[in-house]
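Late entry, evening session. Most of the bench is empty. Finally got around to the prediction I had been postponing all week. Sequence below, unchanged from the version circulated by S.P.
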Amino acid sequence: MSSQSARSDKILVVDDSPDNVFLIKTILEEEGYTISTAENGISALTQLQASPCDLVLLDLMMPGMDGYEVTRRIRGDIKMQQQYIPILLITAHDAPNVAHGLDLGADDFIRKPVTVDELLARVRSLLRLKHSIDERDEIARQREDFVSRLTHDLRTPLVAADRMLMLFGQGALGTLSPQMQEVITIMARSNLNLLTMVNTLLEVYRFEAGRKTLAFQPVHLAKLLEEVAGELAPLAQAKALSMNLDFSKESTTTTVMGDRLELHRLFTNLVGNAIKFTESGSVTIRLTAVFLSSKIRNPELSLPSTISDYITIEVADTGPGILPEEQAILFERFRQGSHKSSGSGLGLYLSRRIVEAHHGTIIVNSELGKGSIFIVSLPIKQ
């Protein structure tokens, strides 16, 4: 490690023994590292929350909050998770096994009394790991920022082309022959498909970059689903598919807390997919409210207190079904199905992100030759 690199690395030494702290601090400062110290776990966490470091040397056995608990809190802190911080456990030869500390998220350990060569070797190793991870994360951030900017910039010419093609199709620039009208229709459809793909990609990167802000408000799902079904009905009619709505009595008056625009995007995608992949038969939207909170008050039932009311939305089709191996990866990013009409592999991934942002779940049940059912569960507004 170069002296320049060493001087840029900040190390926090956490130990309740002043002698151990002095020894380790002296060894590391001679190598050019910037050292800060803490005499207990609480002080260490306070320092890390105020100013993250590049490496933590953590005594495992300390009074009060031991190294196990400090490790658990570091790995569980959302703010600290934004930047990877390696943890090197320091333990006495007669101390309990350090496996538990490694399971909690520590990266390595060293036993007392420490030797200079071993200490420096482990410190260099963990700092190399951190620098590698930081570099990888920075490249990933730059790539995502580039794609996000590119996607955003692509929307402008696509929207302009969409408007121009619409004017052509309406005859605003002169009467078109049937052949020209057909060409314009094909161009408009292709442009719209590309614009939809770009919009989906932009939404995906907004979620992944943490730049997506949801406006939660009470949403009447029955009305929302009726709206989605009405908007997509022409697509179903063009394929002679029947569109069915099956709402339970309780669900017609039930609301959830959510972002209406994002929920509309979610169900438009699910219902649109059902129509897209179904050549004959029907697409059915079922809405069912499940009230469990009242059962919790029944002393004869031993249900966990965490159970709450929820509502399920099922989008069922009579399409070809999905292979079991494809079902396992269906909601992952850029995972395309084997169907000839499969798209970019982003729609269901975005759907999953929207559902998770609403504290819900989404699953699929499918059998080849018998269709598919996508099931979304959302908590009911309390």
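Two things to note before I forget:
The chain has three domains: 3-114, 141-208, 217-379.
The domain at 3-114 is CATH 3.40.50.2300 (Rossmann fold).
Will write this up properly tomorrow.
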